[in-house]
Write a structure and sequence with these properties.
alpha/beta; eight-stranded parallel β-sheet; 12 helices
């Protein structure tokens, strides 16, 4: 729901017609036995004026999920916010807290239950993309650390506001997990790579109070961790090269590639909090093989005692590319036909069914309790 440098706002819920097909989309999931999803709450539509909330865009989703028995993990800020707010100002934190509380009150009134809430999606990536390299709003350069700190302030204010509504609300913090290594033979590149790799923990460390305790972080704020992982989440920092490229992606099978299960173990041992794969997937014919790899690695992590509770396919439906509007074939279902039907990508469906059966057969002590597909690319 971010704005690109061009000024165009992305709205994948509308682009994929999930807003009007939510009930059908949920019924498609139920056919696989999938009952947990992630959804985006479009703040810019809900608060068109300061302090004026209109929840018409999210109520159909809340009600469809309640009726069909779907558990939703709600993203309150998925890169986007109302246009009248300056994100670096204190008002951003204050407005976000009020919006969060208003959503929580609505949800509890509608359902009688406490929701799962992800305050701000991917704080680390958000800070890099929006504050360091100007890929999307706020379109700044070299202000990534400042933006990360501000997003943490907002997340902490959000949690406090949510818990004033209902202390049993569960909090989910999502961010990519990455591996960065230095090119062999270059101590400088290796030091740079390790500093970059450790930076992936900064947002969680601030939320828990390990880093910048003056922000007010506390261990209990770090409730559930959502770990986002894709085929391109690992790279090498190179020494000087003629082509000037300082970072080269490495993929599964490369000698420097770190197995995913080792990364999952590291995060779990660092924080001792429940984790799940909050986003994973790839494009084209590689989709089934990638899901199989992730599931194999999750099984290894479970065997090592990691409290891992699910795997979320992202996205569950194909969507238009952010910058070029291309047809991204990365979901389980395709764009909707005129009457709302979506063609399924059968090879991924077959693999998904196998993996659901595989994990359902695990002993209770090891079982990943839910497979969590994300329903839209917001």
């Amino acid at each position: 729901m971010q704005r690109l440098v061009s000024g165009r706002r992305i709205d994948m819920i509308r682009a994929t017609r999930h807003d009007v097909l939510v009930r059908q989309d949920y019924q498609r999931l139920l056919a696989f036995g999938i009952r947990t999803v992630r959804e985006g709450v479009r703040w810019h539509l809900i608060e068109p004026q300061p302090g004026v909330f209109d929840f018409d865009t999210v109520l159909p989703t809340i009600r469809a999920a309640k009726e069909l028995g779907i558990t939703v993990i709600w993203d309150l800020c998925h890169y986007g916010w109302p246009d009248d707010i300056a994100i670096f100002k204190p008002a951003f934190v204050e407005r976000f807290a009020r919006f969060s509380a208003a959503f929580a009150r609505l949800y509890v009134e509608e359902t009688g239950k406490a929701p799962f809430i992800a305050p701000i999606n991917e704080i680390s990536y958000f800070a890099w993309a929006g504050g360091h390299v100007a890929q999307f709003n706020p379109c700044k350069r070299k202000r990534g650390d400042e933006l990360k700190t501000q997003l943490v302030r907002a997340a902490l204010a959000c949690i406090n506001a949510l818990w004033e509504v209902d202390r049993s609300i569960r909090i989910v913090h999502t961010d990519p997990i990455i591996n960065v290594v230095g090119e062999p033979g270059s101590k400088r590149a290796q030091n740079s790579a390790e500093a970059y790799r450790k930076a992936q923990f900064q947002a969680w460390d601030m939320i828990s109070g390990r880093l910048k305790p003056e922000l007010g972080g506390r261990p209990e704020y770090l409730d559930i961790l959502g770990l986002n992982y894709y085929p391109n989440n690992q790279w090498v920092v190179c020494k000087e090269r003629p082509d000037k490229k300082r970072h080269l992606h490495i993929f599964h099978g490369h000698p420097l590639y770190r197995p995913l299960h080792q990364m999952l173990i590291e995060v779990f041992m660092r924080y001792k909090r429940p984790v799940f794969i909050a986003e994973t997937g790839t494009e084209g014919e590689a989709r089934p093989a990638w899901l199989r790899y992730v599931c194999d690695e999750v099984a290894l992590a479970l065997g090592e005692g990691v409290h891992l509770h699910g795997i979320c396919l992202y996205p569950i439906v194909n969507h238009p590319g952010w910058t070029n509007n291309r047809h991204c074939h990365n979901g389980l279902w395709d764009y909707p036909q005129p009457r709302g039907m979506r063609t399924i990508f059968q090879p991924l469906a077959n693999e998904l069914a196998l993996q659901i059966h595989r994990f359902s057969a695990l002993p209770a002590a090891q079982k990943a309790t839910h497979t969590l597909p994300e329903t839209c690319a917001t």
